[in-house]
Amino acid sequence: MTAPEEPQKAAQEASEPKTPGEPWEPTAAGVLRLPSGRLVRGRGLSRPLPEGQLPTYAVYLLGKQPPEVPWEARWLRWPDFRLPADDEQARALLTEAWERTATARVELACAGGRGRTGTALACLAVLDGVPPEDAVAFVRENYSRHAVETPGQKRYVRRFRA
Questions:
Q1: DSSP single-letter state for residue 117
Q2: The pTM is what?
Q3: 46/39 Cα distance (integer angstroms)
Q4: pLDDT on residue 3
Q5: What is the pLDDT of residues 30-51, one digit of tens each?
């Protein structure tokens, strides 16, 4: 490419829509930056979908099957104020979500976006290298001060191992 073509190409690329493989905007609503720099979004499904980028992969943490979405999504049966119904499935889905944060826009969501979502985000923080005993504080400081709502959810995070 010759030098005069470079500014033209840069202007064209800036005006093109974002592709699905690009990461979350770090300042977007609900986006948590893990210590490694990976980004993951937490949110409450009872609230409107945030404007801007859409997820490319999601794990929905609900007691009943979530509504259909136009992106790839998994359902982890997790009743409100409780723990996942299947601990082995939870570990597998959360590990997959963490792995996908390297190349995809991953979203974790429950109805309110705090208890179950905060617990799942804390587990991703553990997978990312945060000590289990510090993961709840990390998520409360960097995502929501109301994250991880019950003593059982706090214990679940403390017992979660990478």
A1: H
A2: 0.87
A3: 22
A4: 45
A5: 999 999 999 999 999 999 999 9
Gyration radius of the chain's alpha carbons: 17
Q: CB–CB of 99/162 below 8 Å?
A: no
Q: Round to whole Å and give the CA distance between 13 and 17.
A: 8
Describe the chain by its helix, strand, coil percentages, rounded to 5. Answer: 35, 15, 50
Which residues are CB-neighbours of 106 under 8 A, at least 6 positions away?
Answer: 40, 41, 55, 56, 57, 58, 59, 97, 100
Q: How far apart are CA 34 and CA 150, in angstroms?
A: 22
Token pair recorded at residue 126: 């553990």
Q: Residue 74 burial by CB count (10 A; 0-12/13-18/19+): exposed, middle or buried?
A: middle
Integer Cα distance of 99 and 95 in angstroms: 6
Averaged over successive runs of 10 residues, the pLDDT of the chain (162 residues) comes to: 42 39 91 98 96 96 96 97 97 98 97 98 98 98 98 98 86
Contact 42, 143 (CB under 8 A): yes
In whole angstroms, what is the distance from residue 129 CA to residue 135 CA?
A: 9
